[in-house]
């Protein structure tokens, strides 16, 4: 009787160990998949340009190494920074090709 109880207890412990091992392997596999996906997305995101004003993904580019997600952000950033650019050769000059249509 006692031997049967000990064997049952050992079998239960072994079943718990097996379950834990399978669970750890499953979580490691899922973690590795997520990590690979994260690295791929991070690498892709590093190739994008980001809006100089709001931080969204940019589709408009400027000659001052600024990028913008919209004309609205470009106009707002121009108004905020135009006093910094007084030289007519700078991007924010009145003859600037990248802001002439935005003003």
UniProtKB/TrEMBL annotation:
- Supply one GO molecular-function term: transcription corepressor activity
Its Gene Ontology cellular component terms are:
nucleus
Family matches, as Pfam families: MYND_ZMYND11_ZMYD8
Which residues does the UniProt record annotate as the domain ZMYND11/ZMYD8 MYND zinc finger? 51-80
Q: InterPro entries annotated for this entry?
A: MYND_ZMYND11_ZMYD8 (IPR057053), ZMY11 (IPR047269)
Positions in coiled-coil regions: none
List GO BP terms, alphabetically.
Answer: regulation of signal transduction; regulation of transcription elongation by RNA polymerase II
PANTHER family, per the entry: ZINC FINGER MYND DOMAIN-CONTAINING, ZINC FINGER MYND DOMAIN-CONTAINING PROTEIN 11
State what protein this is by name.
ZMYND11/ZMYD8 MYND zinc finger domain-containing protein
Q: Which organism encodes this protein?
A: Ciona savignyi (Pacific transparent sea squirt)
